[in-house]
């Protein structure tokens, strides 16, 4: 039997654990009576993670001291016992200054910001005064907040989930994007810091490591939670193993599951109470009704009996084939409700671009193929030589807009495909368009002979049909339906040729050529 | 309140429905007391699907008559009332002959095969005699069994899940493959038949349509279940909306969810009782322990109190990035337990092939890039002109082996890339290898100038590095981690060039060239 320790469980209940057959004791929140947990450990109850870990984590100041001693990068901090101490901290760290409660702080509770020395006193008062135990943190000038769910097994094996971005609103988690759209090196650094932080704690289970990404590319630890966490809710739908199953695997000593994502992208939106009572429920139900119309959206309603403003009442996770598609779906759910709230149409997966409208009679064939296979795409004029800025912005933003591939056609000194390929990590297909001289050989060589480092997938001169077919094959590498349709296309083509062969054989070439 | 009607619920319980606030009555199995359901309908209880549908489906003979009247293709059948009738059916349909109970038949129970007229009597006896209501079906010479989960909303909107293949063992569902590996046209045909079958029934909910695929490409209806079904268990992990959520959406009149797959491939394995009692539990636990070590495997244990041979005790669904990968994982789980049971290693995602070992000094660069990005791949010699049969079998089997892309290098009359592209729906990257004459222009034109219909993604002459990078971009179209790493690679390359630029600027060109 596993027993999950909640904050509401009393010491009496805990003492009764010895009487039931408790295989493992774990926690669903860190704000539990840790002294009791320690006594239970002494009596042989198997606690995962260990009481020592809970003791460190439930006091945010102790947590900072602990991680600082283990060489984990984190914002400067110091304990304060009175207003003088707070002022000294302000002189040292500057303003704005974060003042935090050491205990029972989460979802923005227990944090206060003093923008200047004058605000120190009221900030301290809002936190209940020095008696509750306060400390200050130097303001971390972060550009993004990241988080990593880290799992440690009983054998101390550690696996990390993909780094996510957490977007907060009034200090409460609002949206989680998985994976975080940050450079790969930043993701590696964030994973490394999270791994190191969890390595310094004792016991098995899921840990959530919240991080700051600063403008100079540093990763600083914010705090750690010793349990499944809001930043990992998306894993239920988007990862091979959800954080909840993973926590059970970890504390029970089962093999850890694969933490990687089974869908390319996910976004989680917290359903926070927007109003008290019935009106709040009414607004939440409106949002849920909207979510039920969004493809890939999964509604979780916690069925809490009481609705309060800013209370986490549930969440919606949207998954999809790319972050662009997922964002469009999220926008569509949130029209008129914050986020960027643009109404979403089906976002294009492929961009077909060409240097001039004179290329259109050739390039239209790529669009015809994509339409035939039902692949949403856009067709644009983007010239390397006449609209270089447009070319740069088009290529640089393509991935974030949700494009998965670009088909670029150009003739002569055909720079468009290669330049676009140098500005995006997406695959780029180049179509050499026959120019007025050289029969298109100039276009072909300009496109295919790219330097080492930047490939362009080049097709035959003027053969935009093949560019479209290649694009379908490329998307098909991760989409079995599209691949099955490509097989069918090949089968149909074969049958068409065989029909002609049969006609030639039965009629003879003379009548075939002169029907 | 929704009430799920199970076979075990008594008429008394049903009559009490009127006293509780029952919003919708639905069924978890078709073997319920349909007369009571009809009376409840008359009294205004909202049943979804309708009692009329349950009445048709729970009698397999009536079901066949119903679908036959609605023009759904199905094997020939006829009612039999005595041995003379059975013999007449045998004369008409030939042997082997399927004899089936009209009622309470599932998981192979209620079916018997007579291989000859002599076996008719014992087959009938094994089914409990004519008194139970029997009919015969002409043996369907199927090559595969397929199934489609179809959902109908209260507004009669219909959506279909992807067609799956069901593999039976002793008439019990053993393995489900999603999507079915059959031609696209067969999938469309199967969906159409399933859609038409469900359209002919009344009421909302999930329906499972079991089908036969015959050797001549026909789809015949086997039977329909008016509820979530074993062939749809994979949807829990592999589809945007599980069949269970979908059933609730349907019967409640909520918008139907997206039925498409969020992972490219899934396989479901039924945990059937292998033995009675404790030994049976022991064997099942062994299998579960194995499953917990398999990436992408999800264990479902139904916690049934009693273990019996061939009883469905749970199931395991394995999902992954391609059917090849999922099959390798399934093999690894089932080593020594049937299926094909080969021990699995990490299956390659990319095949690098070349016409001759003389191409290896060029082609090795593609392998170096793939290794750098951590993409599992294989390197093979496959010559179009000297091993044409090997080339055909390699290309034709590539997709089923789990390859997602092929890089082919060749020189001179370079036929390998184009021939391979004509034999597979996968994307093929061609590397023109410089030949002894013509500076590789022969290789380039042989590879890039493919006819309309069969594209090869051609890179620069001898530039296998770019072939590797293009392959990473192509897999990255569906894999954000790989795409993020490609961005990082571009960033690193940029920094390297900028360092050189700085050095040139600070040292001047003379000292740069003569350090």
From TrEMBL, chains A, B:
GO cellular component, as recorded: chloroplast
Alphabetized SUPFAM superfamilies for the sequence: Glutathione synthetase ATP-binding domain-like, N5-CAIR mutase (phosphoribosylaminoimidazole carboxylase, PurE), PreATP-grasp domain, Rudiment single hybrid motif
Pathway(s) of this molecule: Purine metabolism; IMP biosynthesis via de novo pathway; 5-amino-1-(5-phospho-D-ribosyl)imidazole-4-carboxylate from 5-amino-1-(5-phospho-D-ribosyl)imidazole (carboxylase route): step 1/1
SMART domains from the UniProt entry: AIRC
Signal peptide annotation: 1-22
Reactions that this protein is recorded to catalyse: 5-amino-1-(5-phospho-D-ribosyl)imidazole-4-carboxylate + H(+) = 5-amino-1-(5-phospho-beta-D-ribosyl)imidazole + CO2
NCBIfam families: PRK06019.1-5, purE, purK
Protein name according to UniProt: phosphoribosylaminoimidazole carboxylase
């Amino acid at each position: 039997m596993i027993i999950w320790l909640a904050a509401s469980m009393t010491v009496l209940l805990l003492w009764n654990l010895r009487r039931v057959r408790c295989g493992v004791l774990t926690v669903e929140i860190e704000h539990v009576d840790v002294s009791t947990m320690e006594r239970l450990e002494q009596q042989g109850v198997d606690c995962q993670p260990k009481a020592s870990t809970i003791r460190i984590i439930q006091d945010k100041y102790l947590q900072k001291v602990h991680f600082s001693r283990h060489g984990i990068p984190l914002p400067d901090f110091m304990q304060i016992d009175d207003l003088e101490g707070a002022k000294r901290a302000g002189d040292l760290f500057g303003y704005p200054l974060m003042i935090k409660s050491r205990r029972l702080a989460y979802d923005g509770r227990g944090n206060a910001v003093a923008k200047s020395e004058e605000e120190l006193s009221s900030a301290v008062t809002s936190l209940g005064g020095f008696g509750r135990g306060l400390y200050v943190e130097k303001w971390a000038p972060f550009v993004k907040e990241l988080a990593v769910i880290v799992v440690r097994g009983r054998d101390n094996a550690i696996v990390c989930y993909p780094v996510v971005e957490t977007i907060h609103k009034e200090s409460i988690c609002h949206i989680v994007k998985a994976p975080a759209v940050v450079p790969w090196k930043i993701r590696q650094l964030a994973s490394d810091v999270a791994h190191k932080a969890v390595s310094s704690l004792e016991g098995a289970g899921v840990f959530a490591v919240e991080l700051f990404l600063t403008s100079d590319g540093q990763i600083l630890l914010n705090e750690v939670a010793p349990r499944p966490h809001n930043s990992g809710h998306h894993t239920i739908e988007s990862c091979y193993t959800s954080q909840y199953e993973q926590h059970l695997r970890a504390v029970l000593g089962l093999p850890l599951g694969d933490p990687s994502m089974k869908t390319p992208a996910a976004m989680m939106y917290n359903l926070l109470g927007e109003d008290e009572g019935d009106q709040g429920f009414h607004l939440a139900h409106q949002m849920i009704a909207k979510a039920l119309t969004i493809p890939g959206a999964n509604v979780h309603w916690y069925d809490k009996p009481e609705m309060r403003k800013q209370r986490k009442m549930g969440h919606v996770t949207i998954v999809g084939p790319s972050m662009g598609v997922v964002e469009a779906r999220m926008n569509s759910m949130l029209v008129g409700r914050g986020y960027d709230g643009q109404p979403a149409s089906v976002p294009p997966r492929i961009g077909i671009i060409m240097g001039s409208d004179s290329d259109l009679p050739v390039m239209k064939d790529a669009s015809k193929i994509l339409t035939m296979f039902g692949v949403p795409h856009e067709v644009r004029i983007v010239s390397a030589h006449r609209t270089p800025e447009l070319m740069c912005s088009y290529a640089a933003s393509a991935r974030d807009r949700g494009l998965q591939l670009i088909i670029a056609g150009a003739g002569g000194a055909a720079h468009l495909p290669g330049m676009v390929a140098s500005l995006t990590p997406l695959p780029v297909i180049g179509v050499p368009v026959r120019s007025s001289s050289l029969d298109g050989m100039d276009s072909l060589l300009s496109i295919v002979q790219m330097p080492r480092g930047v490939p362009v997938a080049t097709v035959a001169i003027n053969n935009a049909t093949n560019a479209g077919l290649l694009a379908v094959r490329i998307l098909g590498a991760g989409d079995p339906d599209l691949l099955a349709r490509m097989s069918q296309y090949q089968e149909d083509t074969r049958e068409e040729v065989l029909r002609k062969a049969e006609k030639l054989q039965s009629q003879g070439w003379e009548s075939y050529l002169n029907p």
